[in-house]
Amino acid sequence: MNKGKRIMHKGRWGVVMLLALVAATASAQYEEPREYGSQDARFIAVGVLDREFQPTGNNPLADSAGIAYRVWMPMISFHQGPVQVAFGYTRYTRGGQSKEAVHFGTVFTNELGLGGGRGRAFSIPVCIAADFTKAEADGPKRDNFNIASLGVGAGLRYQYESPAFDLGIHALGIIHFAFEGLGTGSGSSSALDCDAHMMFKAVHIGNGLVVGYRLRAQRWNMSDETFNYHALSHGPYVGVMF
User: Fold this and answer.
1) According to DSSP H, which parts of 36-92 are helical?
2) Going by DSSP bridges, is the β-strand pair 83-94/69-80 parallel, antiparallel, or unpaired?
3) What confidence tens digit (pLDDT) does each residue in 117-164 have?
4) C-alpha 152: how far from chain center
5) Cys staple from 54: which of 68, 101, 110, 135, with CB 3.0 to 4.6 Å?
6) In Å, how far are 28, 55, 88, 122, 187 from 113, measured between CA atoms?
7) For residues 192 and 124, what is the distance between their CA atoms, to the nearest angstrom?
8) Residues 80-115: pLDDT tens digits?
9) Distance between CA 108 and CA 150 in Å, rounded?
């Protein structure tokens, strides 16, 4: 009898421990989403861009001498609140040789609210932006496209927030002062920067999962017209909040 009671006692404790384990597992799976605003979110994302780069109509270079490509460009980006930093690198074939292309950009924004209903809002983002673009030419290094830009811009943003996910959409128009990296020439650059993303705060990968799509169109008008080019890039990305 005593042996039987001991077995029953151990069995009860085993059931209690099993129930506790099941409860803990269920709690982990259905934990409440994190409470924070999407404007304060921090995440790292990777993606790919369908990038097209070619001379503008007023570039005096012959078609055979200008830089032109359309390739996939892998990107990595860091986002924290109003700050975004992105870097992309790829290679393309020109004149039978492999050439490199680089894009680096950063944007800092400040929001001017326009109001909205519960969980949704419109705002005007005002930004300071900088970028650097490189594309190698067939000839000497002085023919390479090495242009850095610094500018300001503004646009429109829509934000929707819920306990499970956030949706953000923005479009920015940016005007830059542009200058050659390997020369004394200068000029201007205009850009359209668009982004749409969803933050899934209830997904238990880091502090949540981000899925988005970005588009950027940029045009350069330089004092040396052989550096007049335009670029169009767009593609998806996925990130992890932390």
Assistant:
1) none
2) antiparallel
3) 778 899 999 999 999 999 999 888 889 999 999 999 999 999 999 988
4) 18
5) 68
6) 36, 39, 32, 6, 33
7) 15
8) 989 999 999 999 998 889 999 999 999 999 999 887
9) 12
